[in-house]
What we know:
Layout: H1 22-36, H2 42-48, E1 54-55, E2 60-65, H3 69-90, E3 96-101, H4 104-108, H5 114-124, H6 127-135
Parallel strand pairs: 2-3
Antiparallel strand pairs: 1-2
Helix pairs in contact: 1-3, 2-3
Amino acid sequence: SEATSTAPAEAPAPVEDKDFTEDDLQRAWVRFVEQELTPSQILYRNILRPELPKLLDGVQAEISLPPGEAIHTTVMEVYPQLVEFLRTTLQNRKFNLVLREKTVEEQAKIILTQEDRFNQLAEINPEVRKLKEALGLRFS
């Protein structure tokens, strides 16, 4: 026969938060943007896809977003879903994500026009400019 214990039932041990790297965080971020967001959530995808979070310390991360109240408000709509996904994927309930507006300097790094992209490429490799002229190419 089985022995019956009179000891009180033990509460389940709390799940331990796992450590994670910035790489782990960024992979989880990309997975969220590419797989968790539905086709109807394309606006969120378009805002979040070009950005990657930076790990500030063991559990605190930061994402830099383009400036503007509309973008911040839009991201806040999906923020609970995003943070919950990251906490679950990273197996760390203490994980926290801070939203920050990009500085003017960070914004300036964004290249907008074809001509801007070409000029940056030509700075890296001046032969590109010669090739463009030799082929008679122009921006449409």
